[in-house]
Amino acid sequence: MQIRWVGGIVATAVMFGCSGSGDASGATPPPKSSGIVWEVDSASNRATAPGAMVAFANGLHVVVIDGTDIYAGMTKLPTEAAPNGGRVVKLSNGETATFTPSGAELNVTFSSGESVQMHPRPLRNGAGS
Amino acid sequence: MMRAGLLATFALLVLGAQPGSANAQGQLDTTLVALTYHKATGTPLDFASAVQYSPAVQAASNFDRDDVTKQEIARLQSQMAATDTTHEFVVKVDDNISEYDHARGEFSIVLFKPGYSVPFNAFGQQYQLVFANADAMRAIPMPKDQARVFDASLNSFGRRVTDEVHFRVVGAGDPSGAVTGPRVVRAEIIAAKILDPSGRVVAAPSEANAPVAKVAKFDPTTVDVSGLRVGSSIKDLVATLTRLFGPVTREPITKPVYQGLATTLTVNDMGCFAMPGRSTPPSPGTVCVTAMADNNDVVRTIRIERVFPWMDQDVFRNALVQKYGPVADAQNGGGFTLGWGPKVPVELLYDRSGPPYALTAEYLTNDDYMSRGMNALPQIRVVLSLVDASWAALASK
Fold this sequence. Notes:
The complex is a heterodimer. Chain A has helices at 8-16, 49-57; strands at 36-40, 62-66, 69-72, 75-77, 79-82, 86-90, 96-102, 105-110, 115-120. Helices cover 14% and strands 35% of the residues of chain A. By secondary structure, chain A is an alpha+beta fold. Chain A has two helices and nine strands; from the N terminus they run H-E-H-E-E-E-E-E-E-E-E. The model of chain A is unreliable at 6-22 and 125-129 (pLDDT under 50). Chain B is of the alpha+beta class. Chain B folds into two domains: 4-203, no CATH class; 234-395, no CATH class. Mean pLDDT of chain B is 86; it is low at 1-26. The interface between A and B is large, with 51 and 44 residues.
């Protein structure tokens, strides 16, 4: 699966008007069906474990990516274009996470130095993509 | 208690006991450090117990002991009242310089690594001195060619050095959450020198040489746990959880642990911890969520857990300090629990024996018969819990 941040996916996102409802808490749930659910690799990979933990702490262990929008839990994160077709997300503490397509996966690199790979979640009943 | 693996057995080079006048010669007046800590942080000092260790009380006869004790309490209270909380102390600590880290291009001063503290005794009890800005002083960076010469020099005296640290007491607790227990004295390094056994300065660490680190600040109004927020509607939380993690079970609360809570939402209830006889133990990547909402369908507490393969606890701690800023309190026991934000009623907490704060984070091992009996590394279960502190404060009135 190739990841494209512009063109068709953006058009799909706009077409289906997929922003969440939001409320006083500032929460914005991800769209119910549009976009793709991505999750970090859960294999016992000691090298990427710090990246997986940083992803979990920031709600990036399971995300919905819908066009150029990235939803970490019920938090819609502002993104900016990055080199190589990626997107940069600014996190609440001022750190950043850069999502870069790599074949069928996404490489996520945090400004604090950790990195981890994400893969699209297969469809399943009641959840996922 | 302090983590055994990182228990720093640094020797204080206290050269004498001349309270209030010793620092210029590098002596540490541990009594004054302790008094400064109690005064600056408001942590109560049991004066009656404290004076039992004073030479005057110990030398007093049974006949005079009560009177001398009263006099000593008055003297100690007076001393605390006169204590300047901005006082600059100097301590000398036996230490080591690490091997060269080729990837980072630096040596490390071991005392300044997270998890290390300087224990000292005062008033018959132990205190632990931690340096809040130690990490910024930790590295001795240098290019490889220069490092080779420096390394040979270190080896010539067994890498043993003395850290001369000038500091002020600034609070309580280890901001990194790595040193736990009662009476953790938080200090700020003003200046430091690293001396070889002959007294020659081998390094003068400075914050000015450290990269500027972003220090996160905890904001209870915008904080999230793994992207999930309190104060949101049940509808939004259910939509989020269903999309990300799977079906959500919604149940009314018949016996609320706290007044005003009416609904429980769960995903993968009890699916994250290993228990004896369980046919399918949780695998890394398993996520569990439990939330409680009030009568108006507003979410007031959220707990999210995830199972990870074994990893060093510093990975978890560092990730959270990076996100939430300095830890307000920490406890060890099996794993550890860290706390941030305002205090909340313990009834609202998952771990009621841990620090009672709006946000808590736990690092736990998921032991099973494989890890216990066959020497395998256990899984790690991490738990983030968030309570709407402003709601809890109002609901309790």
